[in-house]
Amino acid sequence: MIIGVLKEPDFDKRVSILPDNAKTLINLKNNVLLEKGAGEKSYCFDEDYNVLGVKIVDRKKVLNDSDLILSINPLDENEYDLLNEKKAILTAFYPLTNSELVIFFIEKDITSFSMDMVPRVTKAQSMDILSSMATVAGYKAVLEAANHLPFFFPMFMTAAGTIRPSKVLVLGAGVAGLQAIATARKLGAVVEAFDVRSAVKEEVESLGGKFIEVEGAKENNEAGGYAVEQTEEYRQKQQQLIQDHAKKANIVITTAQVPGRKAPVLIVKETVKDMIPGSVIIDLAASTGGNCELTKNNEIVEVNNIKIIGNSNYPSEIPFDASKMYGNNIINFLETIIDENGNMILDFNDEIIKGTCITHNKKVINEKVKSNGSDLD
Questions:
Q1: Model pTM score
Q2: Are 265 and 288 spatial neighbours (Cβ–Cβ below 8 Å)?
C-alpha cells in the first residue's frame, strides 16, 4: 500500500508523522510518499525522511498516487475533488459537525477515518489524539498565561518584601485541565479547579489543586470522559460559584467542551469586569464558541484591563513533540488495520475500527455519525 503524508496548512506547524513513524510504516511493507517540506516547521527535514526510504514528492502526486492519505487537518475543499474513488483518508475532520463532507465521502466512495472519533476506551488510549493534544494545550496555556501576567506565579520572600503567589482557576478537569493544574502548581501558583464530574476530584487533589464542588451534577458514564449538559438549576448554582472564584483569580483557564455542541459559557462579561486588573483568561474552547462570553477565537481581547486569549491551536506551538505524540497515535491505530503484507484490513467487529471509520463502501460506519442526521442514512 502507498501511504501519503500531506503538508499541513500555514497555521499549523505540525506534521502527521515524524521520520521514526515513517520508518515503522515502511517496516510494515508500505511505501511512503511525503509532500515536500511537510516536516520542516516541526524541525524534521526532507532528507531526514528520504534517508529512511520515504519518497519526497509534490502535493498533487501525494493526492493522486496514495492509497491512504494522512493529515492532521482536513484538506482544502477544492482538493477533495482530486481524490479518486476507493481512496482512503485519515485525518480529523469532526464528522458530527461536518455532515457535508461525510456525504461527499459516501458519494465518492472514499474510506474515511477521523481520529477525533477514536472511542474513549482503555485499549484505545494509545490512539487518542484528543487526549494527546489536550496535554499539549494545557501545558502551553499556563506558559502563555505566565507571559501575559503582570504578577509572579510563585510566592517569593525577598529583602524587598513578600510576593504572594498567583491564584489560578481551571474550569474543566479533563486532560487539558489536569495538565494545566500540574504545570501551574510546578510554577508555584495556588490552583483551584472546577468540573461537573465528581470523579475527577481525587485527580485534581493529587496534583495539588483544590476541587470546587457544586452539588447536584448530572453525569453520564457513556460520555467518553466528556462533560454532559446540566439542568437549569445546576447551571445557576454553578454559574454563581464560578463567578465568585473567578473574581479572586489572577488566571482563569477554561477547557469545557461538549462534543458536537457549542461550548458552555462559564465566565460572563459581568464577571470579567469585576476581576483583578491584569488578570488573564485563557480560553481553550475558543474554536467552539468559547467558555468566556467575550472570547474571540484566535484573538486577544482586552476588557477592563483583563486579557482574554482565545487559542485552540496551542499544539502547533510545540510542533516537534506535538507531532511526535500525534504520529504515535496514528501509528498505533494503523497497526490495527494494516496486515503483515501491508494491506488494509477492516474488521468492523473491532470497536476501535468501527468507531474511527466514518465511511466505507458508500456507507456510514460510525454509529454516532449515522444517528446524527437522517441525511446520512
A1: 0.89
A2: no
Active site residue 132: no
- The residue whose grid cell reads 479533563 is 174
Could you tell me the CATH superfamily of domain 2-127+320-376? NAD(P)-binding Rossmann-like Domain (3.40.50.720)
Strand 251-254 relative to strand 299-303: parallel, antiparallel, unpaired? unpaired
Catalytic one of 12, 67, 128, 195: 128
**120 counts as catalytic:** yes
CB of 320 within 8 A of CB of 17? Answer: no
Judge whether 14 counts as a catalytic residue. no
Give residue limits of the domains in the chain: 2-127+320-376, 135-312
In the residue annotation, 131 being an active-site residue is answered as yes
Determine phi and psi for 241, rounding to 5 degrees.
Answer: -65, -40
Tens-digit pLDDT profile for the chain (377 aa)?
A: 999 999 999 999 999 999 999 999 999 999 999 999 999 999 999 999 999 999 999 999 999 999 999 999 999 888 988 888 889 999 999 999 899 999 999 999 999 999 999 998 999 999 999 999 999 999 999 999 999 999 999 999 989 989 999 999 999 999 999 999 999 999 999 999 999 888 899 999 999 999 998 776 665 554 454 555 567 777 788 888 999 999 999 999 999 988 778 898 999 999 999 999 999 999 999 999 999 999 999 999 999 999 999 998 999 999 999 999 999 999 999 999 999 999 999 999 999 999 999 999 999 999 999 987 645 55
Q: Which of 65, 80, 94, 120 is catalytic?
A: 120
Q: How is domain 135-312 classified at the CATH fold level? A: Rossmann fold (3.40.50)
* DSSP assignment of 160-172: TEEEPPPEEEEE-
- Which residue of the set 125, 206, 236, 240 is catalytic? 125
Catalytic, out of 66, 71, 112, 131 = 131
The residue annotated as part of the active site, out of 80, 99, 116, 226, is: 226
